[in-house]
Structure formats: C-alpha cells, structure tokens
Amino acid sequence: MMEVDMTSSAADLSRQLAENAEAVCRHYLSNGRKQGHYWLVGDVRNTAGRSMFVRLSGPATGTRAAGKWTDAATSEHGDLLDVIRESCGLVDFKDVADEARRFLSLPLPDPPRQHSPHSQPPAAIGSQEAARRLFAMAVSIRGTPVEIYLCGRGIRATDQMPSLRFHLACYYRPDGGGPVARLPAMLAAITDLEGRQTGTHRTWLRPDGSAKANIDTPRRAMGALLGNGVRFGAPGDVLIAGEGIETVLSVRSALPEMPALAALSSGHLAAIQFPAGLRRLYVLRDRDPAGAAARDRLAARATEAGIETLTLTPRLGDFNDDLRRYGLAALQARLRLHLQAQDAARFVPV
C-alpha cells in the first residue's frame, strides 16, 4: 500500500480509505453487509439495519465517489473519516487521523515534544484515568454486538443499562506476550459509592456478538476495583449483589426495579462497600466453593453493619444458567418465593 507523508491531510486519508472502502466498512461497520456496489448498515455508529448506504465504488470525487455515505433516515452524510470518528467514538481529528493511519498501515506522526497547555498527558496503562478515557471512547450498546450478546443470554431491556457501552476495536494484549489484537468489547463502568468511575471492565466478543471472543482471557478489569463495582439502578434501601455482570443482569431482568451491583469476582464481592441507608442485601451465590466463601464473608460484614442479609442460590451453576434454561417467568416465580414479602410485592412485576 502506498505510503504518504507523515503530515498527510484529511483529503489524502479520505482518498486512501475510499480506495479500500469495502475493507473499511467490514472493519468499522461490521453490523452491515455488502449489497451490490454498496455497504448497508443501520447508521454511522454501526447500528444494525439498512438505512445507511456507503458507496464501495465510483468516481474519484463528488457525492457519488467511493467512500461517500448517506443515511436515508436522518439525511446525515459524509466520508469514511466520519465513519471512523463516529463508530469509534472519537472527538479530536488527530485521534481520527491516527486511527485511519493505523488501519491503512501508515506511519503515525511523531508525537509533539511538549504537551500544549490544553492537551491531556498520556494516562498510565491500567490506571483509573486510562479506564475512564477508554469508557468515554465507547458508544451506546443499542444495535451493537453487545446487545446481541446479552440478548443471546436471555438479558433484555438493554436501553436501561447506561453503565455498559460498546467499543468496536478494544486492544487485547495476550498474557505472556504475543501480537496485540483489536476486538469488539463490552465495556462496563466500575464506580464507587459517590458514582465516580474508578475502573472499566472489558468483555471481548466475537464480531457478530454470538459469544465471547475466542481468546485466553476474554474478561479483564482495569483501574480500582476493591469495594467498588458495576452498578445498575439508583442506590436504595435494598440491593442485589453478585459476582458476574451476566449473573446480576439475569436477576435484574426478573426484578428490573431493584438496584444491583456486579463486583466482578468472588474476592471483590466479599469486599463491596455498603451505600448509606442500605437495610437489606440479597447476595447472589454462584454454586462453587469460592462463591460460598465470598457469601459468608460478605454476610458477616453486612451483619456487623446492621444490614439484613439473605442469600439467593440458583438451581444450576449461576442465575444466567437458570434464566436460559427455565426462562424469565420461572426465574421470577422462584425469586418471589425467596424475597421478603414486602420486597416481592415491591419489585416482582405483576
């Protein structure tokens, strides 16, 4: 592929992207498909659908040139640099251009010797700041592989999950070295009791959202986890707490109004911090020795703090297994039997 000067303009990058329009669409608009001389997708943010079309061939310039796109539903239009910006959630043109150069295998410009007063210094790898920046780059999960992944696990109402986002090409570094991959990922914001984001959890997925990515460690967290977690719903006097995101969301599918927290591991579940005013805690126990030990440690801490603690145990390995095997109605009926009467009346849908 032809190289360009390191200070190549937007026009240069747009032209070279257009020369590889189908490859660009397959990478950044993976929820679409080719039809004739066009790539059809829901919108420029890679939502599934057919209202946006990208020209894969055409003249070198003009509105009918390769790489030009139009969204018939919104009348938005642009070129493939706009596709990269919107699908990756980028803001600054420098970041868009750098991403385009990476895709085209072009050299990146030399970094400036000094940061300007208005630029952000690089965040340390794995730090809280790096976690916040990563989450900020992601987009809503509606119409993305994340929504497909969750729906495949029986979890619906994804529009009510602002703590989850989708990243089209999240870096994955194998343990022990090896080539770095860029894979679709579900991102989850880890927050403290005051709502400050302290970390980000990543679940790498297959491009079609059918399952987790086929890698050694498809789930990892970065930032500060101890005492914190991924939260669903506003804090209240009653709380569900469990280990995994899918486990917690399975129970919250059955009890959509009950606040919930995913601690992300058995060790972190035992160490969660209790919100002010919490009077009753439902602990979701996984059927394994680590889950039982975490439940016991958390229950002891809660009792010492004057919080009533009850354990909810699945029939199978975890509550997502139960949801997928028995269905939502059966899970709601089972939970109703094990909640306190006032909580059952308050949180179980009629």
Radius of gyration: 23 Å
* Inertia-based shape: elongated
* Beta-strand percent range: 15-25%
By CATH reckoning, the class of the largest domain would read Alpha Beta
Main sheet specs: 9 strands, mixed
The structural domain count equals 3
Q: Give the rounded overall mean pLDDT.
A: 87
Low-pLDDT segments: 1-8, 112-119
Q: Count every helix, treating DSSP H or I runs of 4 or more residues as helices.
A: 12
The appropriate CATH architecture of the largest domain is: 3-Layer(aba) Sandwich
Strand count: 14
Explain what the structure shows:
The protein is α+β, with helices and mostly antiparallel strands and 350 residues long. It folds into three domains: 10-104; 126-221, no CATH class; 225-350, Dna Topoisomerase Vi A Subunit, Chain: A, domain 2, CATH 3.40.1360.10. Helices cover 32% and strands 20% of the residues. The chain is built from twelve helices and 14 strands. Strand 6 (164-172) and strand 7 (181-191) form a beta hairpin. Helix 1 runs parallel beside helix 4, helix 2 (21-28) runs parallel beside helix 3 (80-88) and helix 10 (319-326) packs across helix 11. The protein starts with 9 loop residues before the first helix and ends with a helix. Mean pLDDT is 87; it is low at 1-8 and 112-119.
